[in-house]
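Protein Record: Sequence and Backbone Structure Tokens
======================================================
Tokens: labelled as protein backbone structure tokens, with as many entries as the chain has residues.
Question of interest: how does this chain fold, as expressed in backbone structure tokens?

___
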Amino acid sequence: MRILLPAVVALLVMTPQVAKYADPIVAIRDGYYSTVACIDFPKGADEGSIKYPPGAMGVHFLNMGNVGPTLDPAKPQVLIYEPVGDKLVLTAAEWFMPEQAAGGTAPKIFGQTLYGPMDGHEPIMPAALRHYDLHVWLWKDNPAGMFVSTNKAVKCSPKARYTVALGEGGSHSHSH
């Protein structure tokens, strides 16, 4: 995967600005709200042209104030945390744009074209919310690549109350 020099510069400039969200309370104070569920793709999935290798995403914190027709490297729409013991550890950021806001063209950031359009990921997002997104694993190495949606190094406990397993033939299960 080729990353152009301007994209590398944008990543280097943005990373310290977003790193303040290592504390999820700071993220909440800045308008990010937890979707609660830890999203896991234990067997991976194929949704049209989008491939999710086996792995997890984690817990998404969404800031609707950052959602719109432009993408700002310093203002990701989503922060992604991994539950580790009794803490949430910042692992990635996600740039997200609803299909309607994109105006018929797949958005780009960091020299990458966002994946999509795709349906919303139920149960944390209505299926009708078609969108584009790009996960960027800045704080936890992803063996499959920095811009791959799932990360096999991220863990969602299958026994945790709020783990949601997606994939497995297009269905999802919710642990209780």
About this structure: The chain has a mean pLDDT of 86. Residues 5-68+82-167 form one domain. The two ends are 39 Å apart (CA to CA).
